[in-house]
Amino acid sequence: xxxxxxxxxxxxxxxxxxxxxxxxxxxxxxxxxxxxxxxxxxxxxxxxxxxxxxxxxxxxxxxxxxxxxxxxxxxxxxxxxxxxxxxxxxxxxxxxxxxxxxxxxxxxxxxxxxxxxxxxxxxxxxxxxxxxxxxxxxxxxxxxxxxxxxxxxxxxxxxxxxxxxxxxxxxxxxxxxxxxxxxxxxxxxxxxxxxxxxxxxxxxxxxxxxxxxxxxxxxxxxxxxxxxxxxxxxxxxxxxxxxxxxxxxxxxxxxxxxxxxxxxxxxxxxxxxxxxxxxxxxxxxxxxx
Length: 289
Prior knowledge:
Layout: E1 19-26, E2 46-53, H1 55-64, E3 69-73, H2 74-79, E4 84-94, E5 101-105, E6 116-120, H3 124-136, E7 142-146, H4 150-155, E8 159-163, H5 164-173, E9 183-186, H6 187-195, E10 199-207, H7 214-229, H8 231-242, H9 246-254, H10 262-275
Parallel strand pairs: 1-2, 1-3, 6-7, 6-8
Antiparallel strand pairs: 3-10, 4-10, 5-8, 5-9
């Protein structure tokens, strides 16, 4: 790796301790194919430790320097673009529906002006995506952070934003809440209708003075290929954990774009411009692998 200096450029003298890299693993189903079969390793080249958590926890840990690489939400990548670099070929993105970033609401979308919206505390990107989409329709709402419990969120609010496994389960169930069925809007689909671009929810990033080792990137790429090549097995494991059918989970996972291709970068740049008028494209930086 040619950029970033620091750790990767340091020479390993005889007897030098192996580098330890702490990898943040998001505990959501849609990330499972990226670390399928991946376990902490210890070799002469280096060793790893895994830290599991939700996006907001791991984002904070990365920025605090307590982990070396994690799946960071797009909004945090944009906000901290002068401190971070991302892997150039990893993403969590969709072209259209995402099925797990869902707004449940009692009133139609365009009638949410003045609404009180309970929003998950687990993902800043999804909250900013909702704000961007509402702004585009001239809808102003008040956001109230809450734990991800749909019944509690909708009890005293006009709408509720859920993400991840909780959103997927609720979207599949489409159950009654207090004797009514809420309307459901998929924010991935809403973004596509607004921009005709993919939405990139997250990238894998590190602090710009801590480039990931070649060993970490190689193992990570191999795990992704294994996970996508055995997607039915991944889906079966995750389906049992979620209490959903394997077919539903496999369809869900097959929908994601995991390679950060040019359209995904275009969607990421569009989101950055929408959330920060001062943003310039060149400010998002990627490791030269």
